[in-house]
Design brief:
The chain has 309 residues and is of the alpha/beta class. It has helices at 34-44, 59-71, 120-124, 139-154, 172-182, 193-200, 205-212, 253-267, 274-291; strands spanning 2-7, 11-19, 25-32, 49-56, 74-81, 87-93, 99-104, 126-132, 158-162, 188-192, 219-223, 229-232, 237-240. The strands form two sheets. The chain has a nine-stranded mixed β-sheet, sandwiched between helices. It has a four-stranded mixed β-sheet with strand order 3-2-6-7. Helix 6 packs across helix 7 (205-212).
Length: 309
């Protein structure tokens, strides 16, 4: 059985890494994609994970498959597309390590994922099904996402959802519409404060949390960067402080937080007792703090022994 199967975007993050002697930018080639990052967290922690998605039958697609196979992620759910190229993202970092993305994914492979690409057995044989909203920006991958979600619901599998909203990919109103269409399926929701405000139309953190938990079955996590994580369940809520580190690159930090949280929650048989829940959140925060000290998302996933608190 798989601990977690995720579905969605899979891409290469090209992150600026200084300049050469002629003043031209040099780039690191890092595998990425928010749902993929979560699968990689599970595999890095010696869990069993798989990924469902689509890459181009090109040098980048084969690189991605080979890279995550070495991490232990089951890639049997990744389809090769001979007609469309692998999605690329170029990442620039400011002096605080915050990133800005330029996506090259118009008619690319990941948004051409289709229902026939979905391996039902992977989902049926998992404990957690994880997805985001970026696979819902194109009709084909949108229908594939809903199809996979229906399988998970039918099999009573725990469902985790991270919208991972990107303003330069789709309009706010359209994004909110699609997010609201699927949010009630989620046992576990992770959002940034900006995403919480977009979804609820409210500004206050606690008001956002109270609104979101009306839709989500078990827990909502609102990430606040260096200010920690605000959580809310049907019976409890509170703020958990973050761990601090020198910021190099924040790419993937939220995914590493959420992946770690889900892994720890699974280790505790999905129990929501306050002490255990807070411990899961703290470990997620520690993992995220370690990740921002390195460049890239997947390459910055810490070793499991380093997140022990």
């Amino acid at each position: 059985m798989y601990d977690l199967v995720s579905l969605g975007e899979i891409l290469i993050d090209f992150t600026i890494n200084g300049q050469d002697e002629n003043g031209y930018n040099c780039y690191l080639e890092n595998p990425g994609g928010a749902p993929l990052n979560v699968s990689c967290v599970f595999s890095k922690y010696n869990g069993k994970s798989a990924f469902i998605g689509k890459v181009g039958d090109d040098i980048f697609g084969h690189y991605l498959i080979n890279y995550i196979e070495k991490l232990g992620v089951d890639t049997s759910g990744i389809s090769l597309d001979k007609k469309h190229l692998t999605t690329l993202s170029f990442v620039s970092l400011d002096s605080n390590g915050d990133r800005d993305f330029a996506f090259y994914r118009k008619n690319s492979a990941d948004i051409n994922l289709s229902k026939k690409d979905i391996k039902e057995d992977l989902i049926k044989d998992s404990r957690i099904f994880h997805f985001g909203s970026l696979s819902m920006t194109n009709k084909s991958s949108y229908l594939a996402t809903l199809y996979a979600l229906e399988i998970a619901k039918r099999e009573n599998i725990k469902i985790s959802f991270d919208p991972n909203y990107r303003e330069n990919i789709w309009e706010k109103d359209k994004a909110k519409e699609k997010i609201m269409e699927v949010i009630e399926n989620a046992n576990y929701l992770k959002v940034s404060l900006n995403e919480a405000q977009l979804i609820t139309g409210k500004k206050d953190l606690k008001e956002c949390a109270k609104e979101l938990i009306k839709y989500v079955k078990e827990i909502v996590l609102i990430t606040l960067g260096e200010n920690g994580v605000y959580y809310i369940t049907k019976s409890d809520q509170g703020l958990v402080s973050s761990y601090h580190n020198n910021v190099v690159d924040t790419t993937g930090a939220g995914d590493i937080f959420f992946g770690t949280f889900l892994f720890e929650l699974m280790q505790n048989n999905f129990a929501l007792e306050k002490d255990k829940l807070i411990n899961c959140i703290k470990k997620g925060c520690k993992a995220a703090s370690l990740s921002i000290g390195k460049k890239g998302a997947i390459p910055s996933i810490p070793n499991y022994e380093d997140i022990i608190i």
